[in-house]
Amino acid sequence: MIGVRIFIGEIINIDEYGNVLINDVKGNPLTFRPKDAKFIQIVPETEYEAIKNRYQTK
Predict the structure, then answer these.
(1) Domain extents for the chain?
(2) Which superkingdom does the taxonomy of this entry point to (predicted)?
Protein backbone atom coordinates (compact mmCIF):
# COMPACT_ATOMS: atom_id res chain seq x y z
CA MET A 1 0.00 0.00 0.00
CA ILE A 2 1.30 3.45 -0.90
CA GLY A 3 0.52 6.33 1.41
CA VAL A 4 -0.55 9.58 -0.19
CA ARG A 5 -0.42 12.96 1.46
CA ILE A 6 -2.44 15.73 -0.15
CA PHE A 7 -1.84 19.34 0.83
CA ILE A 8 -4.49 21.94 0.16
CA GLY A 9 -2.82 25.28 -0.27
CA GLU A 10 -0.46 27.32 -2.37
CA ILE A 11 3.28 27.11 -2.94
CA ILE A 12 5.04 30.13 -1.43
CA ASN A 13 8.68 29.32 -2.15
CA ILE A 14 11.10 26.59 -3.18
CA ASP A 15 14.55 27.21 -1.74
CA GLU A 16 17.96 26.37 -3.16
CA TYR A 17 17.98 23.05 -1.26
CA GLY A 18 14.68 21.89 -2.77
CA ASN A 19 12.58 22.49 0.35
CA VAL A 20 9.04 23.54 -0.52
CA LEU A 21 7.21 26.10 1.63
CA ILE A 22 3.43 26.21 1.31
CA ASN A 23 0.56 27.89 3.13
CA ASP A 24 -2.35 25.56 3.82
CA VAL A 25 -5.97 26.72 3.67
CA LYS A 26 -5.85 27.76 7.32
CA GLY A 27 -2.81 29.95 6.65
CA ASN A 28 -0.35 27.65 8.40
CA PRO A 29 3.10 27.49 6.78
CA LEU A 30 4.30 23.95 6.02
CA THR A 31 7.71 22.89 4.74
CA PHE A 32 8.61 19.56 3.20
CA ARG A 33 11.26 17.96 1.02
CA PRO A 34 9.79 16.28 -2.07
CA LYS A 35 12.84 14.02 -2.41
CA ASP A 36 12.00 12.46 0.99
CA ALA A 37 8.43 11.67 -0.01
CA LYS A 38 7.08 8.88 -2.17
CA PHE A 39 4.23 11.02 -3.51
CA ILE A 40 3.11 14.53 -2.64
CA GLN A 41 0.44 16.47 -4.45
CA ILE A 42 -0.68 20.03 -3.83
CA VAL A 43 -4.25 20.65 -4.95
CA PRO A 44 -6.77 23.48 -4.69
CA GLU A 45 -9.60 22.98 -2.20
CA THR A 46 -12.20 22.27 -4.90
CA GLU A 47 -10.11 19.44 -6.32
CA TYR A 48 -9.54 18.05 -2.82
CA GLU A 49 -13.30 17.92 -2.23
CA ALA A 50 -13.76 16.00 -5.49
CA ILE A 51 -11.03 13.51 -4.50
CA LYS A 52 -12.48 13.12 -1.01
CA ASN A 53 -15.99 12.52 -2.35
CA ARG A 54 -14.72 9.96 -4.85
CA TYR A 55 -12.81 7.82 -2.35
CA GLN A 56 -14.80 8.40 0.83
CA THR A 57 -16.13 5.18 2.33
CA LYS A 58 -19.87 5.09 2.69
Answers:
(1) 5-55
(2) Archaea
